[in-house]
Amino acid sequence: MAFKYGLDMPLGVTVMGWVHGAIFTAYVVACLVVFSPLRWRFGVLVLALVASVPPLATVWFERWANRRGLLTESDSDEPTFWGRVRQIN
């Protein structure tokens, strides 16, 4: 919006909007990809996805998850989320 109204460059909104959308989508996909190998509970995944909406809430989520050791892969023999789903069938 600063480009459009402050600098009178409406193309800036198009470009920055596309970049913002790409980064947002990458964050959501990254959360969906890592939640099973990191053995997150479903609630942690939901919290990570909710944190993608308010500005800078992802920074808070990352600090919170890091303090609780949720960002390191454990050496557990327990099946991952998708491994448990496959066992149900």
Q: How many helical elements?
A: 5
| E-strand count | 0
Oligomer: single chain
Strand fraction: under 5%
Strand count, sense and closure of the main sheet?
none
What string gives the helices and strands in order?
A: HHHHH
* SSE class: mainly alpha
Helix content: 55-70%
> How far apart, in Å, are the first and last alpha carbons?
50 Å
Radius of gyration: 18 Å
Number of domains: 1
Low-confidence stretches: none
Compute the average pLDDT.
87
SSE topology sketch:
Blueprint: H1 2-6, H2 10-34, H3 42-50, H4 57-67, H5 81-88
What keywords describe this structure?
89 residues, 65% helix, mainly alpha, 5 helices, elongated
Description:
- The protein has one domain.
- It is mostly helical and 89 residues long.
- The mean pLDDT is 87.
- The protein is elongated, with a radius of gyration of 18 Å.
- It has five helices and no strands.
- The longest helix has 25 residues, at 10-34.
